[in-house]
């Protein structure tokens, strides 16, 4: 039985349906991300699990118990917010101990737990400081310690890294994941950052327009997107239009070449997608499909050179590693791209 | 040029503010012919009615502040958290005491709570005191509400509340341990204004026939020459002492000191 079970969840604000028939089952100790653009309903789902919003219909069960009748302070959840939400009038230690104090934990036990949490987040000496005396990354670590101190059943993370600068964000996401693994706490993480979702999660739920478009592990989400939206939202994508020549056999004509995709296709035109990393500049072994084009843009990014190549009426992006002995191609230069047909994704939806 | 104008404006303001005060102080010291003395102050302080009325008004002010805080802080918090749409309506209601004269309010109270009504508060001294305290709270409402609402605007009420709820806190804990300490400076500003209003208020206390400081000042002013000036200076000093106390309290709060 799943530890956190969300079934047929619906929520509207006025005439706007923000969550539609949302279903998700999370196992104990699993780290699941809700990924999607602004307004897709991911935060609303999280807030309904926390109890800050009431669903119009559906059920939410934690460890088998229906929690919809419980107030937020009765649900045994820990939550970390984007804006840290540390209590400004309390010290770091008082913030971390707040949930324990509310539960009526004894002084000695509370002090020990606060010390343990501060050590866990790597700030054992900052207990007497006030939140305003900490950096953004430190504040968010304290917020995490505060959420974990009362030993909640579920940890909810509402875009906890969005307010931090890039370097801190990367180091903190690794710390959060390590702590989550250590404690084995079931975690639901909301983000609009695909890199965060892919790098941290056991499973990712890609949401769009209130619906869960795909649920899967990061590898599956990235490599086998179920819908056009998932393919386009997760990672960079090249979309090429092809003509279906044999729907039953799954044959298409692309850039004047016949390719077999090995699966039936609807008649007419098909949208084929390519990740930039499966496109090679020039001939490459095992990549038999050749596309002739002309360099439209070149961006030198140091270790990587990002190029956009005009192929007929489409554009194809690709990345190549920098080689000191080979300068990047010039804009306008005629080039040949090579691709393996099995790397072509057929977009649906 | 701009700097010169600024100094002239400051000087004019200072003269406007300090000149009457200096005049009052100077006049209050001239009770004994041909010399400056504190005779007027001595007589005021020796008058048992001074301490009685001042003590009564201070007690009423404290009660009004407590009642005002208990009424306004949860209301402003709830409006900001759950009903932001009705904020304009609440602001309008809290402004009403500024446009409805105190005499109208107190006559309304007398009519509603007289001895032949369902709730005959004016039938006893304690009941009338409670009624007067409600009246004072009404008069202070525009100031107290605005002060608290401004304080709440400075903090992220929703997120702090949700963070506390997720940690298991109920409404009373949230209000007492998080919201109130974080708007304490604003509450003290409102409390100070309430104190100033209650100490000098005349109409309600006189019409409800309570032994407050305002009617005593009026009585003294109608019958004596130098003592009212001394009384005005004392009242002024008390008010400023309260303001200083408020500043001290806020200075001792570590987290607010650092935020300034």
Features:
heterodimer; A: 349 residues; alpha+beta; 6-stranded mixed beta sheet; 5-stranded antiparallel beta sheet; 35% strand; B: 260 residues; mainly alpha
Q: How would you sum up this structure, described in words?
A:
The complex is a heterodimer of chains A (349) and B (260). Chain A has helices spanning 42-50, 92-102, 107-120, 136-148, 166-183, 194-200, 218-223, 228-233; strands at residues 4-13, 16-26, 31-35, 57-62, 65-66, 77-80, 154-158, 186-191, 203-208, 211-216, 238-246, 251-254, 257-260, 269-274, 280-281, 289-300, 304-311, 314-321, 334-339, 345-346. With 349 residues, chain A is an alpha+beta fold. The longest helix of chain A is centred in the middle third of the chain and has 18 residues, at 166-183. Chain A has 8 helices and 20 strands. In chain A, the strands form 4 sheets. In chain A, strands 6-7-8-3-9-10 form a 6-stranded mixed sheet, sandwiched between helices. Chain A has a 5-stranded antiparallel sheet with strand order 13-12-11-14-20, with no helix packed on it. A 5-stranded antiparallel sheet of chain A has the order 15-19-16-17-18, with no helix packed on it. Helix content of chain B is 81%, strand content 0%. In chain B, helix 3 (48-82) packs across helix 6 (125-153), helix 7 (157-166) crosses helix 8 (171-182) and helix 9 runs antiparallel to helix 12. The mean pLDDT of chain B is 90. Chain B is globular and about 75 Å long. Chain B contains 13 helices and no strands. Classes of the chains: A alpha+beta (349), B mainly alpha (260).
């Amino acid at each position: 039985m799943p530890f956190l079970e969300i079934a047929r969840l619906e929520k509207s604000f006025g005439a706007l349906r923000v969550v539609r028939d949302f279903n998700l089952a999370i196992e104990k100790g699993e780290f699941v991300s809700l990924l999607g653009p602004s307004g897709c309903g991911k935060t609303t789902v999280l807030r309904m699990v926390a109890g800050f919003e009431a669903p119009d219909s559906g059920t939410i069960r934690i460890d088998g118990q229906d929690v919809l009748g419980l107030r937020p302070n009765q649900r045994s959840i820990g939550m970390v917010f984007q804006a840290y939400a540390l209590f400004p009038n309390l010290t770091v230690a008082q913030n971390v101990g707040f949930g324990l104090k509310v539960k009526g934990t004894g002084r000695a036990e509370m002090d020990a737990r606060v010390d343990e949490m501060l050590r866990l987040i790597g700030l054992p000496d900052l207990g007497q400081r006030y939140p305003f005396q900490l950096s953004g990354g430190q504040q968010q670590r304290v917020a995490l310690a505060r959420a974990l101190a009362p030993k909640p059943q579920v940890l909810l993370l509402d875009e906890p890294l969005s307010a931090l600068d890039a370097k801190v964000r990367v180091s903190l996401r690794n710390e959060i994941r390590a702590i989550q693994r250590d404690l084995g706490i079931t975690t639901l993480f909301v983000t609009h950052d695909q890199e965060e979702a892919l790098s941290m999660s056991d499973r990712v739920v890609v949401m769009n327009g209130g619906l869960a478009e795909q649920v899967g592990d990061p590898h599956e989400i990235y490599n086998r997107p179920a819908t056009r939206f998932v393919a386009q939202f997760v990672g960079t994508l090249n979309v090429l239009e092809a003509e279906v020549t044999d729907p039953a056999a799954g044959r298409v004509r692309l850039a004047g070449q016949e390719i077999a995709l090995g699966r039936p296709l609807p008649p007419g035109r098909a949208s084929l997608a390519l990740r930039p990393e499966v496109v090679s500049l020039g001939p490459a072994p095992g990549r038999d499909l050749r596309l002739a084009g002309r360099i439209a843009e070149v961006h030198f990014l140091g270790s990587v050179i990002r190029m956009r190549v005009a192929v007929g009426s489409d554009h194809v992006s690709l990345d190549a590693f920098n080689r000191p002995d080979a300068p990047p191609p010039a804009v306008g230069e005629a080039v040949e791209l090579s691709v393996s047909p099995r790397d072509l994704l057929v977009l649906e939806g | 040029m701009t700097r010169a104008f600024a100094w002239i404006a400051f000087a004019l303001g200072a003269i406007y503010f300090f000149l009457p005060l200096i005049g009052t102080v100077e006049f209050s010291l001239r009770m004994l012919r041909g010399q400056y003395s504190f005779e007027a102050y001595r007589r005021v302080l020796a008058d048992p009615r001074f301490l009685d009325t001042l003590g009564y008004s201070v007690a009423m002010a404290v009660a009004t502040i407590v009642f005002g805080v208990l009424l306004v802080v949860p209301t402003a918090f709830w409006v900001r958290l759950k009903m932001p749409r009705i904020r304009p309506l609440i602001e309008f209601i809290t402004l009403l005491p500024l446009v409805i004269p105190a005499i109208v309010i107190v006559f309304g109270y007398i009519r509603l709570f007289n001895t032949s009504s369902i709730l005959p508060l004016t039938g006893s001294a304690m009941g009338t005191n409670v009624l007067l305290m409600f009246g004072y709270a009404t008069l202070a409402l525009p100031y107290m509400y605005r002060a608290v609402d401004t304080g709440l605007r400075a903090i992220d009420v929703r997120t702090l509340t949700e963070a506390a709820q997720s940690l298991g806190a109920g409404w009373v804990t949230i209000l007492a341990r998080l919201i109130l300490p974080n708007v304490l400076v604003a509450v003290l500003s409102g409390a100070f204004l309430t104190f100033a209003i209650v100490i000098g208020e005349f109409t309600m206390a006189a019409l409800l026939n309570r032994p407050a400081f305002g009617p005593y000042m009026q009585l003294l002013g109608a019958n004596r020459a130098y003592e009212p000036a001394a009384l005005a200076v004392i009242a002024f000093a008390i008010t400023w002492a309260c303001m200083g106390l408020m500043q001290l309290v806020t200075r001792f709060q570590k987290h607010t000191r650092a935020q300034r």
